[in-house]
Amino acid sequence: MAKALIVIDMQLDFCPGGRLAVAGGDEIVAPINDLMADFDAVVLTQDWHPHDHASFADNHPGAAAFSVVDMAYGPQVLWPAHCVIGTEGAGFHPALAADCADLVIRKGFRPQIDSYSAFYENDHRTPTGLAGYLRDRGMEDLAFVGLAHDFCVAWSAIDAAKLGFRATVIEDATRAIDLNGSREAAREDMSKAGVVLA
Question: Transmembrane ranges (predicted)?
C-alpha cells in the first residue's frame, strides 16, 4: 500500500512571530523534513485567504478574535487575519523542504467559507480534489503532520478516515492551539473516527 505524508499548513503565520502563532510551531519543521523520505508522496496544504475572508474577526465589526459566530455552514471561530494571499505570512516556513512536495493544495480561498480540512471546505461538502488525486496515485495510507493539531490536522485526518483512507496523525510532528481544551477534544474525535494517534 502506497503511503503519503500530508503536511498541514506549515506557514509563517502559524509559527512563532506569525499572526496566528502556534506555540512551538517551528520546532516541528526539521522532524517533518526527516519524515519525507519515508513516504511515496508528500502533499503540502497551504491556508490561502483573501483579505476579506469571513473567518477574520476584523471583518465582523465589534467581534473579538477567538469568539464563535454562526455561519450558513455552522459554528465558525473568528481568527485574527492570517495567511492572506500574497503576504509573507502565507508562505511556507523557509526551512521546510517544500521542494520535496508532489502537490500543494491551497484552501480557504473562498471568501465566505473557511477550510480547515485538506479534503473539504467547512461545509463538509465542497471538495478540494485531494481525495481524487491520492486515489489516482494509489495512496491509501496517509500520515498527517503540521499545524494545528486540534484544527486543520484533526479535521483533515477525520475526513481521510471517513473517506476510507488509513489515517495516522504523528503527534510529535504537530503542535496544537489548544483553545478551551480543543487539543484533547480533537484527540477524542480522531480516535472515534478511527484515526491512529502515533
Answer: none
